[in-house]
Specification:
Elements: E1 6-10, H1 15-30, E2 34-39, E3 54-57, H2 67-91, E4 95-98, H3 105-113, E5 118-122, H4 129-134, E6 141-143, E7 159-161, H5 168-171, E8 185-189, H6 198-210, H7 213-218, E9 219-224, H8 230-240, E10 243-247, H9 253-259, E11 262-265, H10 269-278, E12 282-284, H11 294-305, E13 308-310, H12 318-329, H13 332-344, H14 350-365
Helix pairs in contact: 1-14, 2-3, 6-8, 6-12
């Protein structure tokens, strides 16, 4: 049995980074360890672990266009590194696990320069920039998918495929059967938090309007939409004659995933992992502004297994989507087979694998 230790998790503030960190935190708590999560100010919105974990914020920044913005970013990062160094001196963690995202960088950089043991977890199919800069000094690199790109040959010996941990609540609905398709057909849509979600707000209602009347009467759309675009999106669905529930955020994400017949959204690493865990067919529209096309690569294993369809944003037109939806809704066997294929890509042991790797590194450290 591993001796209980203080373990620090450094993570970005978005769900894609924080949800895997939360899953690992819960598993480590169950094993008797003390856990501290270090992130930026956005991390305060994700306190699923209640008071069992201390969440600390440090200054962080990403580089944007313009000299003034870059100078400010350097200053914020330096302040974050100093803040992280003080936290490391205070808590003296046995190991620090970095989950990527620019808010993780100050803590991981400080830890490596101060001689603390560090390891990384990469959620995406392509190593992110923060993890790429930290990989040389990390003792281990845990990956979510096979053949993760952008890892240097010299660091390949550190790589362990653990999978991408998902939230406990998502894992709890893994055994929910795929819902019957004979009545209401429910589509669940999320798009992320950026202005580029507008493509879903405009394209999906327009596609629904093109569907035959009998299909439109059966449709129920559950659509996550930014507040400022809620009214316009609601009007579009109303004009299409389709039932829709539209919110800025759904607190019952596990239940929504379990109840849907089809998911439409971006293919961020955690989204793909959660869809696979629950086992629901999906139409993924990868985020178009990533130069490394990480979201396309995230969805490829599920696509190759037959569990999803990848549509690049330039091809995601109302006409194309309407044609795809009509074909799928009229062929429920295709959807049910895709659901099983998606579930086969799920990684229910991911959090155990990752926690085992952390404890292995703790043991070798001692």
């Amino acid at each position: 049995m591993t001796t209980p230790e203080t373990i620090m998790l450094a993570t970005g503030g978005t769900g894609g980074h924080l949800y895997p960190a939360e899953a690992l935190a819960q598993e480590l708590l169950n094993r008797g360890h003390k856990v501290i999560i270090v992130t930026d100010k956005r991390g305060n919105a994700f306190q699923e672990l209640g008071g069992k974990v201390q969440i600390v914020c440090v200054r962080a920044a990403t580089f944007k266009a313009g000299i003034a913005s870059k100078i400010k970013a350097v200053g914020d990062i330096l302040i974050g590194i100093l803040q992280a160094a003080m936290l490391l001196k205070e808590f003296r963690p046995a190991i620090i696990v970095g989950f990527g995202g620019y808010p993780s960088y100050p803590t991981m950089f400080a830890a490596q320069r101060m001689g603390f043991a560090t390891m990384l977890h990469e959620q995406n199919a392509v190593l992110g920039k923060a993890n790429m800069h930290l990989a040389n000094k990390a003792s281990a690199i845990a990956t979510s998918l096979p053949d993760t790109q952008s890892i240097k040959p010299a660091n390949q010996g550190k790589v362990t495929l653990t999978g991408n941990p998902v939230r406990v609540a998502i894992q709890a609905v893994r055994d929910n059967p795929y819902p019957a398709t004979s009545g209401i057909f429910e589509i669940f849509i999320t798009g992320g938090s950026t202005a580029l979600t507008r493509v879903f707000n405009e394209t999906v209602p327009a596609a629904a309007k093109l569907l035959p009347e009998d299909i439109r009467q059966r449709l129920h759309i559950v659509h996550q939409c930014r507040d400022e675009e809620n009214a316009a999106t609601t009007e579009r669905y109303k004009a299409a004659g389709v039932s829709a529930a539209i919110k800025n955020f759904f607190n019952d994400m596990p239940e929504r995933l379990a109840a849907c017949h089809l998911f439409i959204g971006r293919s961020g690493a955690s989204t793909v992992a959660e869809i696979a865990m629950v086992g629901r067919p999906a139409i993924f529209v990868p985020y178009p502004s990533h130069a490394d096309r990480q979201q396309t690569y995230n969805a490829m294993p599920m696509s190759q297994a037959g569990g999803c369809w990848i549509i690049q944003q330039e091809n995601f037109t109302p006409e194309m989507l309407a044609q795809q939806l009509e074909k799928l809704i009229k062929n429920p066997d295709t959807l049910e087979n895709a659901a099983q294929s998606a579930k086969s890509c799920g990684q229910p042991d991911a959090v155990k694998n990752l926690a085992d790797l952390v404890e292995e590194k703790l043991h070798s450290r001692r």
